[in-house]
Amino acid sequence: MERVIVLAGGMSYEREVSLSSGRRVADALKGAGLEVEIREADAGLLPVLVEDPPDLVFPVLHGAEGEDGAVREVLELLGVPYVGARPDACRLAWDKPTAKAVMRAAGLATPESVTLPKGVFHDLGASGVMAAVVEKLGLPLFVKPTRGGSALGASVVRHAGELPAALVGCFSYGDAALIEKFIDGVEVAVGVLEIDGTATALPAVEIVPLNERYDYTARYTAGQTEFVTPARLAPAAMDAALDTALRAHEALGLRHLSRSDLIIDRDGTPYLLEVNVAPGMTETSLLPLALHAAGIDITRVLSSA
After folding, report:
1. Please, what is the angle between helix 87-94 and helix 96-105, to 10°?
2. Residue 210: how many CA atoms within 13 Å on its side-chain side?
3. pLDDT digits (tens, 9 = 90+) for 225-239
């Protein structure tokens, strides 16, 4: 393998994160002696892939363009090998309620939730629907778009009066809301990396935001979050978290790499929040922190691609 194209950018809300991730991945691959080109997923991409196909494509696109399987479907049509999950698996993971259903069927714990499109609040009356949600799930709640990442449109609701504003913020980034029972505990991320075809859970990264919210600013502003690797978990809780990430990776049919976001409650039970098929690779992203803690270079993922 000599030539790799890194796909980064796109037109999603996470464009800048993707560009930062792409540059970091490209630098790592260049450091390993590979010829690397960063390209956008635009009209100029297909002619390059057809006329001068690379040995491998490394998609680092975030948001719908990079995580819903569409770009990977085109790569499959062209017969170009690439890093990461195949289209069907991407579609499962991209839609959070669908992914939750798959994970529950696999016996994995995930917060109790409801999924409601924006139209339901308009058609049935927002106040009545919100009251039913609070009655069913209790407080606090966590509200987020059913699709998307980087905590965009996500918020904690501790009082019923905060729910309308949380839904307005959520619907700014999507047409449906996933409303979950808030789980109080330690937030961790567990990466899974396939090396020579074997899936391995990386050290869990504990997330401690300074302002108590791991929002967009806390994720991508240096110094706004403390990351502890390995996470400060009891041995049994650590084993359960790593096992959960591996089982989620398998249940969703992912390959090469993924990152599971979990909350470990006070009893040590891991609750799976979501699974990312295109984890961020910026200097404050979680998968690179786990790779560093494990002493593994990102170029090792190429051995399974």
Report:
1. 100
2. 10
3. 888 999 999 999 999
Furthest CA-CA distance within the chain: 61
> How far is C-alpha 264 from the geometric centre of its chain's CA atoms?
17
Determine the pLDDT at residue 294.
92
Distance CA 129, CA 73 (A): 38
**From the candidates 150, 155, 260, 285, which is the catalytic residue?**
150
d(C-alpha 279, C-alpha 294), whole Å: 17
C-alpha–C-alpha distance, residues 99 and 102, integer Å: 5
Verify whether residue 212 is a known catalytic residue: no
Q: What does the pLDDT look like over 200-218, one tens digit per residue? A: 999 999 998 887 666 656 5
Q: Closest Cα partner for 257 from 296, 224, 229, 218?
A: 296
Asked if 216 is an active-site residue, the reply is no
What is the pTM assigned to this prediction?
0.91
Residue type, 233: L
Catalytic residue among 259, 260, 271, 285: 259
Query: Is residue 261 within a helix (H) or strand (E), and if so which, with residue range?
Result: strand 257-264
Is there a catalytic annotation at residue 274? Answer: yes
